[in-house]
Amino acid sequence: ILNVEQSPQSLHVQEGDSTNFTCSFPSSNFYALHWYRWETAKSPEALFVMTLNGDEKKKGRISATLNTKEGYSYLYIKGSQPEDSATYLCASLKMEYGNKLVFGAGTILRVKS
Amino acid sequence: DSGVTQTPKHLITATGQRVTLRCSPRSGDLSVYWYQQSLDQGLQFLIQYYNGEERAKGNILERFSAQQFPDLHSELNLSSLELGDSALYFCASSVRTGTSSGNTIYFGEGSWLTVV
Asked: Which of A36, A55, B15, B83 has the highest local Cβ count within 10 Å?
């Protein structure tokens, strides 16, 4: 994989459903994987920074896992609420001289009440 | 509130003009990044500064330039503007650069630029 890819592109779920998205990234020269939550007209909110293979992180009902060997990360939302509606972005950190986040196109989540 | 402040929030200007976007990083953050979000593309990295020095360059056009001042705020200058430059320009900041991969990078709310 040359770029950061996210799937699905969009997701519509009912309130209370649990859901998950996938982020695929180049596994070579891996440094870190960032997850952001982005609501329209707001700044992208940092959710997780993951650096180690097998990492699992949790923030409330949202959790993420990381597999650096195969180049993927999953973001899980348990018991989705309407306020979870947002675009979820993942980005792989490239460290050449300086830092550069390479973003995926995002997964748009809409939670219906 | 991420602590990263960007001005202006919205800007409408004509083709051929020049604009300056301003960014104040979070208190204590030495690294500043600029990203562009256009309608047909995801967030694209433009440039990074660390403590006043350019550190990394991405897909930044020659018509665009940036700098980071001694007080750590940064400006992105966009000149000879074209219709295709219309986009949301984000500034982000983090504490360090390069040596520490686990740092969170915090984004501002962005500056909407419309070129007419």
From this structure: A36
Mean pLDDT of B1-28: 96
Cα separation, B2 vs B111, in Å, equals 15
Question: pLDDT digit string (tens) for B37-47?
Answer: 988 788 999 99
Q: How far is CA A23 from CA A34, A43, B94, B96, in A?
A: 10, 21, 23, 25
Chain A residues inside the 8 Å CB shell of B26:
none
Q: Is the pLDDT of residue B101 over 80?
A: no
Residues near A16 by beta carbon (within 8 Å), at least 6 away in sequence:
A79, A80
Question: Which of the four pLDDT bands, split at 50, 70 and 90, describes residue A1?
Answer: low
Beta strand B10-13 with B111-115: parallel, antiparallel or unpaired? parallel
The reported pLDDT for the residue numbered A80 is 97
B90 interaction partners in chain A (CB closer than 8 Å): 43-44
